[in-house]
């Protein structure tokens, strides 16, 4: 007998990866998912509804959800039949770039409120139900910057590192409840994400930043970043497909550019078979660029950088390396 469809709640579906995932799951030919595609501003639902086509109102419903608001989360869950979420996809996220002296603490806190506490807020809301039913799957759209810091992305990377630490820790105790955690760590993806960042920096003045740093940011970092997105940016479809989030086909594991087909059909978005899962965490890493030069390799790179991001060394002495920390002389 066919299993009843799983309820999948996805945050941040107005554009990009969230929209693509919502549509692909809702259009699953075997109709295994009831997708609750959420966004903070329902005024933006047009693109999602158009992409969903006939799935709209059948296997896909659109709901309002601001991950930064307790009330919004409670209201959204109250509209889901029985309040039961089988699969939670924490996708909503915002970026922030620039020299930190020129960024306000409020802007930094907004990034953490959305990327980190937004995911935590949703997990806290759905976890009791998942534990009671002893089944669930939590998918977290992190970033390659959750694994490696990148210059001028300190706060964004920190928010993704925080997610990684949180979910790696949580995954361990959830195993006994048959609840699985997947971290997806894409490289650059061609969505509105980059455009929003560029718009942000086009008007920002970064007050208090020294001229050398500002010049390096504007003349070296920004053009290199644009080039990176242009040359190696994945599409949201790539991310959904290669991260094992897609409902059909057998899952592949992408680890920083290397594709190793999984030995068996692991049924994405369904709880992993414990025997197939190596540890509590399933971590498909999506990136279509070469592996990063880790700071531990010799000789250390002059500046920790996103794989593929070609930057000239910054002015001044070489930065502190993880392998051999050197303290600046007073
Ligand atoms: N694009 C990349 O290069 C890249 C790379 C690695 C990881 N990621 C991660 O992938 C995820 C999706 O990003 P994307 O590339 O698809 O970017 P996107 O097109 O900008 O989508 C981000 C989504 O998050 C939503 N959002 C922002 N704040 C929210 C809030 N408080 N409550 C609910 N939704 C909120 C946005 O809604 P609005 O339309 O209302 O702003 C939008 O729907 C993010 O977590 C991002 O960090 C992206």
UniProtKB/TrEMBL annotation:
SUPFAM superfamilies, A to Z: NAD(P)-binding Rossmann-fold domains
Record region (Disordered): 232-330
UniProtKB keywords: Oxidoreductase
Compositionally biased residues, Pro residues: 289-318
Signal peptide stretch: none
Transmembrane stretches, start-end: none
One Pfam family here: adh_short
Superkingdom per UniProt: Eukaryota
SMART domains: PKS_KR
InterPro entries: KR_dom, NAD(P)-bd_dom_sf, Sc_DH/Rdtase_CS, SDR_fam
Bias type Polar residues, positions: 232-245
Limits of the Ketoreductase domain: 6-192
Stated family: Belongs to the short-chain dehydrogenases/reductases (SDR) family.
Protein name, as recorded: Retinol dehydrogenase 8 isoform X1
Organism (species): Equus przewalskii (Przewalski's horse)
Gene: RDH8
């Amino acid at each position: 007998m066919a299993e009843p469809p799983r309820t999948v709640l996805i945050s941040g579906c107005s554009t990009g990866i969230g929209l693509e995932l919502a549509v692909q799951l809702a259009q699953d030919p075997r109709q295994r998912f009831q997708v609750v595609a959420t966004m903070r501003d329902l005024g933006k639902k047009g693109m999602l509804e158009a992409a969903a086509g006939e799935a709209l109102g059948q296997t896909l419903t659109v709901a309002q959800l601001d991950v930064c608001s307790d009330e919004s989360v409670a209201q959204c869950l109250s509209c889901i039949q029985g309040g039961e979420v089988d699969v939670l996809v924490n996708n909503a996220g915002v970026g922030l770039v620039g020299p930190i002296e020129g960024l306000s603490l409020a802007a930094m806190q907004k990034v953490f409120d959305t990327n980190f506490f937004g995911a935590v807020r949703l997990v806290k809301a759905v976890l009791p139900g998942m534990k009671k039913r002893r089944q669930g799957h939590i998918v977290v759209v992190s970033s390659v910057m959750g694994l490696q810091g990148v210059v001028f992305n300190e706060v964004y990377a920190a928010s993704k590192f925080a997610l990684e630490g949180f979910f790696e820790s949580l995954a361990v105790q959830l195993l006994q409840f048959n609840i699985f955690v997947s971290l997806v760590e894409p490289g650059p993806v061609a969505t509105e994400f980059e455009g929003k960042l560029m718009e942000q920096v086009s008007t920002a003045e970064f007050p208090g930043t020294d001229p050398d740093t500002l010049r390096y940011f504007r003349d070296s970092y920004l053009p290199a970043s644009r080039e990176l997105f242009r040359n190696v940016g994945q599409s949201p479809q790539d991310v959904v497909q290669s991260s094992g989030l897609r409902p059909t086909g057998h899952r592949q594991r992408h680890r920083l550019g290397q594709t190793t087909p999984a030995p068996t059909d692991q049924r994405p978005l369904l709880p992993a078979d414990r025997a197939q899962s190596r540890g509590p965490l399933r971590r498909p890493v999506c990136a279509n660029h070469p592996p990063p030069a880790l700071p531990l390799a010799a000789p250390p790179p002059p500046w920790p950088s996103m794989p593929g991001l070609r930057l000239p060394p910054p002015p001044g002495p070489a930065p502190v390396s993880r392998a051999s920390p050197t303290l600046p002389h007073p």
